[in-house]
Amino acid sequence: MEIRLSREPTLYRARYLIPVIGRPLENGALISVEGRIIDVGPYTKVKKGHLGPEQDLGEVALLPALVNVHTHLELSALKWRLTPSGSFVSWVKNLLRVRSNIKAEEFVKAARQALKSMWHEGIGLLGDHGNTGLSISLLRESPLTAVFFREVIDFQGKSSLKDYLKDHLNDPKITFSLAPHAPYTVSPLLLQAIKAWTKKYNLPFSLHVAESPEEVEFLMTGKGPIRELLEGRGQWSASFVAPGLRPVKYLDRLGILDEDTICVHLSQATEKEISLLSRRRARPCICLRSNTFLGVGIPKVNLMLKLGLKPCLGTDSLASNDKLSILAEMATVHRFFPEISPEIIFKMATIWGAEALKQQGIGYIAPGARADLLIYQLPQRVPLKDLFSCIVTQPPEQLGRLYG
Ligand SMILES: [Zn+2]
User: Which of 37, 158, 121 lies closest to 403, judged by CA?
Assistant: First the structure.
């Protein structure tokens, strides 16, 4: 079911409505005008004074569109072409080898298809990362809202920021930012320069952190498979002195961590590192299905929540996941952490993701928010108290949409 919102003030009624900020409503309704929500509440209250048309959507729940904070659309052509080997660095090497043998048009075709499937999976906002810029024109054509992070990889620190700002966008649909790939692929000075730039423009900053045991080994000792990979690719820097610190501590020493820093993965982060992240109010981005595929460990999501962090969800790319689905990520979080309430998991999939990407009016349903809504067909007669559990444990193949 796909419904285009009417441009005139129209009331939409549903058996349930999940505002995210505030309790779910039974027999709920909202009024939208030109793609914005102007009123939300119980049907009887919203109906009062509304003289325009109304549409009853029936036995459905209305939800805000989902947020995928971490993707790499430009790697979509790698789907099913890589198998997990048990070693993170072997996977990286395979990725680089396979990637170099794929034709340009195949990358575009696969990225377009991936974007289309994200639409059907109910995603309304994504944080896409790329070092080719291939996905920018596709994002512009797509109905999804996007933050595009130009990814920086330069361990020797020979490049300067202006090299990455060539495709700096001034686009109402796409927010442009910079993202260093990881603490082991970008020089410390360049990491700090990127952070200073994103801070100056009040933009989100994103990087992969504490993903694999090899990353931890490299930052602690300067040795191991990552050192060999850098040397093999002519990227080793003789001036680099291993900090002898775990990844989160290292980034903190560089002044990188704050509430606008999205730390992707954290599958290797220790209790101490998570505690440090909570003091800095950084934004963990959890990509459990990718972590499971690569066998790099499972992040301590329950501890993050206990310490007041607001984790969000990402899929990473189709090189380490079989789908870019936040519905599937929610179900996986529930499977690994049944003690986390489904309502919190839903916040991870919506409002906390939009906050991490610094996008206003997305990830919740309230006056002033964007009317980008999902129609969840209830699989059976579900009592209100079981609604979140139903959404998280029984993800539908496809979601309906109500959009303007
Ligand atoms: Zn990634």
Answer: 37
